[in-house]
Amino acid sequence: MDRLSPFQLDKRWLWTAAIGLLLFLLIQVFPVTGQLFTTDVHPVMTRTTAENKAFEWATSRFGIKHEEVDAVTVTHLSDSDTVGYFTKNQLMDSYNKKWSKFAPTDVYAVKLHLRDKAEALLLYIHMETGKLVAWQHLNNAGATNKVVDKPVMETDKLAAHALDYAQFWGVTPQDWEWIGNDKKTGSVKFVSRKANIGESRLWLKVAVPDGFSVFKSSFPPWAGGSVTYGVDLPASFTAYMKDQEKLSAKLSILGFILPQIILFIIAIVYTGTHGKYTSYRRGIFLAALFFALYAGLTFNMLPGLRAGTWKAGANVGDNVNLVISLVTYAAMAILTYFSAVGGDGLWKSMGRSLWPRWNESNYGAAVLRSMREGYFLAFILLGAQSIILLVLEKSLGSFASSDASQSMYNMTYPLLLPLLAWCAGISEELQSRLLGIGVFRSWFVGGARKLLRREPSRRTAIVLTTVAMIPPGLLWAMGHVGYAIYPVYTRIIELVIMSILFGWFMLRFGVITVIFAHVTLDATLMGMQMMFDGLPGDFFGGVFSLLMPGLAGIVIWWLHGAISGRNKIAT
């Protein structure tokens, strides 16, 4: 018996989807203040505008002309530890009122590579106002130039000298108190005299180049200098964040990368042993689409890749990041292909057909139906995710930080962000759900069959199928522990629960429906992010993101009908 269309589904599904959407809006979208239909959106400069602002500052304050610059890179940087501390302790409002205007946690770092010199000038630009908030003169290794052989000064005079220098760059001297010198960089360190935020305090470091004199320099020298700021956080919190990063790295390697290699081998084996139940052409288009999208988006996300290595001080070039990423995505595309063939063949060998083929007469109608069902299921998933995260926040004290490597502001064309939803939906559903659940179900049910020496009961098979959703769900969750949500096991708990819902939906509605549900879920989250990121034009990009899965389903339905001559909507 053919499945019902979403508009003929039991009302319980529709009500559940409506409740899920409402929970998502109340918990994740609307501000926690209760002002349901307003949000505090600040306009943010584009990367091009930030580059132009940097050139204005370079000319007016440093005397650097445009033709003296050989190359420019613009990277969004975020002080993730500080953001995490403020978020965890509910101090973001205090930060926004006290520090955000002159010491923002998020900046555009514009690096001006000087022509004919192995040096660069790094300007930190306020993302909303375009103000120059900090700067560094870098050598060819990317480090701040060390100032050596300085004239010996008394401590109080050295501090006053540094503040005189910093004043030219917009620093108010009376706001800062000297606390020591950094011998490695030759800089002088100060802390703010203004009130701290929680247990955090704002610091300022100033490196004064030789030859600076407040009496004779209306345009002071900058080569070898720097004026930077940061936040000193409680030692207990910084130690916690370091431990979390180490745990995340271990879980990623032991819990995701190594099992992913094993899954790759399993996918090849099951493709060979169960290929007779399906076609070896199965999944070629989706795997190719996955790689094409990710390869194209990698060029779009090069600033983000750069930001990901910035904190560690790794001087990794864009070309290296690009090659590593493309090789990784090629391997993932191959795994996606084998997962499609092996998974489809495995399920068909167990008497289940979860994935219609293009040459079937009702394929277009099935895709259109799956798209519509995918929206309803996505709303249910969004509501479930919201409840899970809320419970984890209240019970475990989980909190989110920032991650510049995933930032909208580190995309050359932010409007392309929604395409990432297709990459995740295609690869993760074919790998973790179609193949992963199929493999573990065959193992568990097969093991029960051998143990009982008979076919297990329907109830036993259902229980074993449910249990089979957990191992691939755990593998899927381990691939997301690198996200800036703490403690890192927060995402493991969340996504293992979500994986059971995804698995149940796949068995109930099929592979195409669950891919659409996954894409719609991600596209909705991305769309909301775009609507409120402050970049010009992104609000309409967010609206497009919400509509994108539906448009894709309609296009596939129309294409299949146009090619096959059958255009009808499933009822």
From TrEMBL:
Coiled coil: none
Protein name: CPBP family intramembrane metalloprotease
TM ranges: 251-271, 283-302, 322-347, 374-392, 461-483, 495-519, 539-559
Taxonomic lineage of the native organism: Bacteria, Bacillati, Bacillota, Bacilli, Bacillales
Keywords annotated in UniProt: Membrane, Transmembrane, Transmembrane helix
